[in-house]
Design a protein that fits this description.
- By secondary structure, the protein is of the alpha/beta class.
- It has 2 domains: 178 residues, Maf protein, CATH 3.90.950; 194 residues, 3-Layer(aba) Sandwich (Rossmann fold).
- It is built from 13 helices and 16 strands.
- Helix 2 links the parallel strand 1 and strand 2.
- Helix 1 packs parallel to helix 5 and helix 2 packs across helix 5.
- The longest helix has 20 residues.
Length: 389
């Protein structure tokens, strides 16, 4: 099988002053070995990670994954790799994060397809390549070689090698690599690189970064919106009636425990707000949101509301939690808090044990005003393929 020459790849990456971190969840790990055993690779490859067990993947990504062999998980891992590359001192425009997830032949026949998914994250783009293999036609060793070849091929494409990789020579009739690339707008690149803290997007169009004064005194609904559903829309409508002003949504690409959102994820979530104003930020914590949007009123669910004063979310420090409560009470214009259903029971936000300074600035939405049993997780799972296992 003709594959990318690791020596040519290392030379191309070195010439571009690129630095790489590669993550493999098992299948495709040979790509790491082929890179790091190539002369000159120590100046290019910063790290290779192999989180083989699902618990190891969960730890790296900050939570349980709804599917472990999927483009989304591959993208998350490649973004984590990109972030680690930057954390090691690589300029954002020279960092490359690559990841491979695979469901390959094992001793026990798999119910689902044999699949290889490779994602590559750069400051300019998110790319995913998916290859579904014909079952029962190869041994594990040959499938491993294909997975490694696809990783090297995608890195070669990123490095713009003069000779394109030719992994197609090793495929069966009907097998082909499906590639999808999401190119980043310049403003998105600045946000990902940390050069700007927030972008205002209206009617689906990026309006550019905004000064702090323009972000003040708003009705703001923060969330991950994965996906945006009728429960969110109803909350927004009720909040608008209470505050007597239109609501703006806020989506942070940063999360305290999880990787940054990749460009495909950013694009798909922005598309949900074609008729509303959305703020795309790097404000992972509520205190960061308060600093970005001073004097604003915030729309919150009961789960988020109770975390505002919980020491566990401030490194276990009661003093830090108390200081955060003081800051929120002093700098937020108000909080509009909605209850939610968990295990069939409605959580009444007015009955939550929170400090009085928070209660003093809070409007509690009653169950009579709002109750909608909608789960974002359940909605996502409706559209997920079963894991190949």
């Amino acid at each position: 099988m003709q594959t990318t020459d690791p020596a040519d790849l290392i030379a191309a990456l070195s010439a571009a002053e690129a630095r790489v971190v590669v993550v493999s969840t098992g299948g495709g790990a040979r790509a790491i070995a082929r890179l790091v055993t190539t002369p000159g690779s120590s100046a290019v490859v910063l790290e290779g990670l192999v989180p083989y067990a699902r618990t190891a993947v969960d730890t790296l990504l900050g939570g349980h994954q709804e599917s472990y062999c999927s483009p989304r998980t591959a993208r998350r891992l490649s973004m984590k790799a990109w972030q680690r590359c930057v954390d090691y001192g690589t300029p954002p425009n020279q960092a490359i994060g690559a990841a491979v997830v695979a469901s390959l032949r094992t001793l026990t026949p798999k119910r689902g397809p044999h699949r290889i998914v490779v994602a590559v994250q750069t400051l300019a783009a998110t790319t995913v390549a998916t290859l579904e293999l014909e079952k029962a036609t190869r041994g594990r060793d040959e499938e491993e070689d294909l997975a490694a070849a696809l990783v090297l091929a995608r890195l070669a494409a990123t490095a713009c090698l003069a000779r394109p990789p030719a992994i197609l020579a090793g495929l069966r009739p009907g097998e082909r690599v499906e590639t999808a690339t999401t190119l980043a707008q310049p403003e998105w690149q600045r946000l990902l690189a940390g050069a700007t803290p927030a972008l205002c997007i209206a009617a689906g169009q990026t309006m550019g970064s905004e000064p702090a004064a323009a972000a003040a005194d708003r009705l703001l609904f923060p969330g991950s919106f994965d996906p945006l559903h009728d429960g969110h829309r109803t909350m927004a409508s009720i909040a608008e009636e209470i505050a007597e002003r239109p609501v703006d949504y806020e989506l942070s690409i940063a999360n305290v425990d999880k990787p940054l959102l990749d460009y495909h994820e950013i694009e798909s979530r922005i598309a949900q707000f074609a008729d509303r104003t959305l703020w795309l930020t790097r404000a992972a914590t509520f205190l960061e949101k308060i600093a970005l949007f001073p004097g604003s009123t915030f729309v919150l669910g009961a789960d988020t509301y109770v975390r505002l004063s919980d020491p566990r979310y401030y490194g276990g420090s009661g003093e830090a939690a108390a200081a955060a409560v003081h800051t929120i009470a002093a700098q937020a214009r108000g909080l509009i808090v909605f209850g939610r259903v968990r295990d069939g029971e409605f959580t009444d936000p007015a009955k939550l044990d929170v400090p009085q300074p928070l209660r003093d600035i809070t409007y509690f939405v009653s169950q009579r005003e709002f109750r909608m049993d909608v789960s974002s997780t359940a909605l996502r799972q409706e559209h997920l393929p079963c894991d190949a296992s």
